């Protein structure tokens, strides 16, 4: 078995959004390079009970947020970290230290992404995430779409994503303030 160029050189540069492409050919018993991506469940708490989520049907552990000390101790164990995904079965936006966590990772040059249900996204916490230099925010509209009765899923997704993304982009580039987060109607 021959190893890819990346596996031969564990410090070769790569796109952190495509880290999964580094696995070439067969996997070996021992990793050929240190981890470059961490999935950190910063909370298992959530403010919704979506039909697509396992926590809706069974509570496997007591609700809790990851402590700042535990977060730092995990991140500091991976000096070559390139990408961090800050979600699991909980809603990351409920974690008070989330912007601080994003900032800590960004200070190390890590690409940071997480999913949210968007229900607690506000101007204040949105600004805090932008100021912390969050790279990617994914908003799941599953629950919101299920509640909508007069508008199609496509209309809701189109309106919500264009309005929210436009305001985030404008604030991030310094062109405008965030005065309206969600489309009216």
Can you offer a commentary on this structure?
With 185 residues, the protein is an alpha/beta fold. The chain has a domain at 33-151: Aldolase class I (TIM Barrel, Alpha-Beta Barrel), CATH 3.20.20. It is built from six helices and four strands, in the order H-E-H-E-H-E-H-E-H-H. A four-stranded parallel beta sheet has the order 1-2-3-4, with helices on one face. Strand 1 (37-39), helix 2 (68-75) and strand 2 form a beta-alpha-beta unit. Helix 3 (98-106) runs parallel beside helix 4 (123-131). The longest helix has 21 residues, at 153-173. It is globular, with a radius of gyration of 19 Å. Residues 1-8 and 175-185 have low confidence and may be disordered.
How would you concisely characterize the structure shown here?
With 185 residues, this protein is α/β, with parallel strands linked by helices. Helices cover 31% and strands 9% of the residues.
